[in-house]
Design goal:
This protein has 12 helices and 12 strands. By secondary structure, it is an alpha/beta fold. It has one domain: 2-enoyl-CoA Hydratase, Chain A, domain 1, CATH 3.90.226. The strands form 2 sheets. It has an 8-stranded mixed β-sheet with strand order 1-2-3-4-5-7-9-12, with helices on both faces. A 4-stranded mixed β-sheet has the order 6-8-10-11. Helix 2 packs parallel to helix 4 and helix 3 packs antiparallel against helix 4.
Length: 290
């Protein structure tokens, strides 16, 4: 049944001099796609220009989340990565957010934002709590909502060109996809305040020094390193990993709900609308860069 749902094919490869059969399953859409092979799920992001997370991406993420619940019983690792050169993910689709808000009154706009945030929180919470080891293999731009997607994973492997940033302050907002509670869970308050209150970016070396990134690799090597790690993880008992993960990585549900409330409160303020309009009207090729 799972194979039919995901589009299963047979593939072969040579390992240690022997021809080995490998089950490969896959599915996806215009923004992302995923495969399952040898107990490892790979979720690839590929929505140009830099995997901005809008309504279409969210719908596909929700489909992946539903599939993940079925797949996780036969898997030990999930790798999330980007196929696009600019980076892992530039965050929320701010153009879509602004344009939609302009067609609604204040109450409707807030309701639409809240619905979007609650939906993406459900997806990221599921990834956060999945009973397998999740790895974000990042490069280049890892900003805003893309940073928050990486934070939902257990481990972040970054190539040396990766940059991490929460630029929401420039828009008069805070991160809305769970970034603040997950940063507070994983890092010291000084680092959290630095990222949130200055909007500056950290490079991969700095991110490793502060404990955000578990491994820094050469340019273009993050996915290879994540795959090597996933192979190593196959040696460990899944039930033990799931139990340990529950203990060391609790989901901060109450703070996540508070984050949504604060984001919605801020969203309709004039400074936010002005910041969004400035972003939308920018002629820069990559307006999300600091």
């Amino acid at each position: 049944m799972l194979g039919e749902m995901l589009g299963t094919t047979k593939d072969t490869k040579v390992r240690e001099g022997k021809l080995e059969s490998k089950l490969v399953s896959g599915c996806g859409g215009s923004a992302l796609s995923w495969t399952l092979a040898e107990g490892v799920i790979e979720l690839a992001l590929h929505r140009a220009p830099c995997n901005e997370l809008g309504s279409a991406s969210l719908e596909e993420l929700e489909k992946f989340a539903s599939a993940l619940e079925s797949m996780q019983a036969e898997t030990h690792a999930l790798i999330i990565y980007s196929k696009l050169k600019p980076g892992f993910c530039a965050g929320a689709d701010l153009r879509e957010l602004y344009q939609q808000s302009q067609t609604m009154d204040k109450a409707e706009a807030v309701k639409g934002v809240r619905d979007f945030l609650e939906r993406i929180h459900r997806v990221l919470n599921l990834i956060d709590a999945a009973p397998l080891t999740t790895i974000a293999a990042v490069h280049g731009v890892t900003f805003g909502g893309g940073f928050e997607l990486a934070l939902a994973c257990d481990l972040i492997i970054a190539d040396k060109m990766a940059r991490f940033c929460f630029p929401e302050l420039r828009l008069g907002l805070i991160p809305g996809f769970g970034g603040i509670p997950r940063l507070k869970r994983d890092l010291g308050n000084a680092v959290v305040r630095d990222l949130l209150l200055t909007g500056r970016s950290f490079n991969a070396t700095k991110a490793q020094q502060i404990g955000l990134v578990s491994q820094v690799v050469g340019e273009g090597e993050a996915l290879r390193a994540a795959r090597a790690m996933a192979t190593q993880l196959r040696k460990f008992d899944r039930a033990t990993v799931a139990t340990a993960k529950k203990f060391i990585k609790p989901i901060p549900h109450e703070e996540l709900r508070q984050e949504i409330d604060i984001f919605c409160e801020l969203f309709t303020r004039p400074a936010v609308q002005a910041g969004l309009r400035k972003f939308v009207e920018s002629t820069d090729a990559q307006p999300y860069l600091p």
